[in-house]
Fold this protein.
Amino acid sequence: MCQSGAYSVAIALAEGAFEIGAVFTRNGVTGEPTATIDVTIDRSVLAPQIDAVVRGASEIEVAGSAAESAAQISVSGNGAAFCEAIADGSGAWSCSAEAQSDGVLELRAVQTDVAGNVSEPSQAQSVGIGSGIFADGFED
């Protein structure tokens, strides 16, 4: 036994949930197992999904899914910050912002999970602004 009563061990764990405990054995005598702790290893996050883009009179609402609960969703429009949201417990999210200029706005979403992992951008979704041109599959 070390004099401080503290021990350390290094183990490699894959991503996932684990229950970790310890048992001390010295000179053939085994002690009682410690209480266990739950540990989650999280090193990655998938891209969120943009499900709908709705153009209102002055704002564009972006709604999506496939995010981790409580993840921060950052939506960019043509490469610039557009709007942000926090995903709910089911992974759904939505945000809106004012459309700044006429033309086609290409929207992409990125999520940052509670562990700080940042996803790749989602597939782009486009919406026409001002000129009456709209991308297929989205509401006016």
